[in-house]
Amino acid sequence: LVENAGKTTGRSVLLSRAELRSSRVLTLFTSWGISGCLLQNGRPLNGRNSLIGEIGHMTVEPSDTEVCGCGMKGCLERLVSLKRVRQMMKSPPAKESPLYGLEESVSFSQIFSASSAQDRDARTLVRYLAECFASALHNICLIYNPDYVVFQGDFGQADLYFDECLKMALGDFRYYPQEGAFETIYDARGLFELDAQGGWFMLNEYYFNTVELYMDVL
Q1: Rounded to the nearest 10 degrees, how much is the dihedral formed by the CA atoms of 127, 133, 136, 138?
Q2: How confident is the model at residue 202 (pLDDT cuts 50, 70, 90)?
Q3: 100-121 pLDDT, tens digit each
Q4: pTM for this one?
Q5: Residues paired with 17 in a beta bridge
Q6: DSSP of 16-79, one letter per residue?
Q7: CB 82 within 8 A of CB 96
Q8: How many whole angstroms separate alpha carbon 52 and alpha carbon 56?
Q9: Are the beta carbons of 116 and 159 closer than 8 angstroms?
Q10: String of b and e for 102-117 (b: at least 16 CB within 10 Å)?
Q11: Strand order in the sheet with 34-40
């Protein structure tokens, strides 16, 4: 029943907001990799090759030279990885920046915290990350057109500046409605909690509500 980790954590949103059960929703699992769950009226979309939702392997920058684990280049999850961010920080931030001295160990939460405090160096990184996601989400919208996009995991902690940059980049496309392509939700809960809730939702849907499984067989 489960094709990737993102489809378990993704189902958790169906317990948090009732309106998501009757909408088109894209949840984004962002941690050691990037994957997603496409939900329509409370049901995840699945494919023959278990590739629906593997948006981390969407080609965002064809000229990028890093080879992804999938064998391709320019994949979203390589462009927004901590490894890539730390490479971008080889030129140390200003000494007064909260990120100074963290070039080899910085985390996404530290970046978003510094960006929220309006640190210039952090905001340069956040703007880059948001624009990478915007490119991927733009392509997804042309095919799936979600009502909601829910960030989970590392990017569930994103600050308001990330959201502003994301919407600004998406706003360049003239065919989106004035209010934007979709509503963004940032779920800062831990992935273990989301995984447990998503797993419970699946067990309830496929087993606990199947009366035939609990009937005595004579």
Answers
A1: -70
A2: confident
A3: 999 999 999 999 999 999 999 9
A4: 0.89
A5: none
A6: H-GGGGGSEEEEEEESSSEEEEEEETTEE---TTS-TT-GGGSBS-TT--PBPTTS-BSBHHHH
A7: no
A8: 11
A9: yes
A10: bbeebebeebbbbbbe
A11: 43-44, 34-40, 24-30, 148-153, 183-187
Hey, what amino acid is at 157?
A: Q
* 44, β-bridge pairs: 39
Tokens found for residue 187? 């779920």
Instruction: Return mean pLDDT, the chain.
Output: 89
CB atoms inside a 10 Å sphere around CB 88: 14
Rounded CA Rg of the chain:
19
**Residue 91: what pLDDT?**
83
- Of residues 144, 190, 126, the one with CA closest to residue 52: 144
Residue type at position 60: V
